[in-house]
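ping. complex inputs:
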Amino acid sequence: RKEVEQDPGPFNVPEGATVAFNCTYSNSASQSFFWYRQDCRKEPKLLMSVYSSGNEDGRFTAQLNRASQYISLLIRDSKLSDSATYLCFHRGSTLGRLYFGRGTQLTVWP
Amino acid sequence: NAGVTQTPKFRVLKTGQSMTLLCAQDMNHEYMYWYRQDPGMGLRLIHYSVGEGTTAKGEVPDGYNVSRLKKQNFLLGLESAAPSQTSVYFCASNQAGESSYEQYFGPGTRLTVT
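pong. complex structure:
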């Protein structure tokens, strides 16, 4: 089983829609969790950290569920500029255990 | 600040040729990383470094070597390129410490091995 499983999509939603992505991980010792955003042919950039208590930043909400070993990203009121690939990332118990999901592609249409 | 820069941006190699990819960061970060990104595979860690003079293997180290002679630079070498090493290579860095885990990425190097 892969360390990180992520639905690649694509997700195609209209402007204003709410969309959610999940990412499951296999190592219960995993430590830090993050969501990155990657635009086409660009480098990944940090979107937000993920905490068990939830983390909200404007229209974006990230959540960690340790019991079920998954993290989620919710985007409300989608904008055209949200179109990108969203990568989940987590760090295991040692520094060398860094894992990215393969990314979920989102397209927001007018 | 330039952040993280990578040289070159594009390269085409023939099988068996060698090359070195250069990563430089001006943020005084302790940790540096090399990833490769392939379609449908996500980013996979090749090698990483926790400080000047130290390197360690990541998830997919075979066929690559690295060196960190200066804190700001992290070099990735391919001694004998193979078509399976066709990929986009990203360098990243971050500050040490549990709470400082945002990785800053360079713009990537697109490598094609024919």
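The interface with chain A takes residues 31, 33, 35, 40-45, 48, 50, 56-59, 90, 98, 101-103, 105-108 of chain B (CB under 8 Å).
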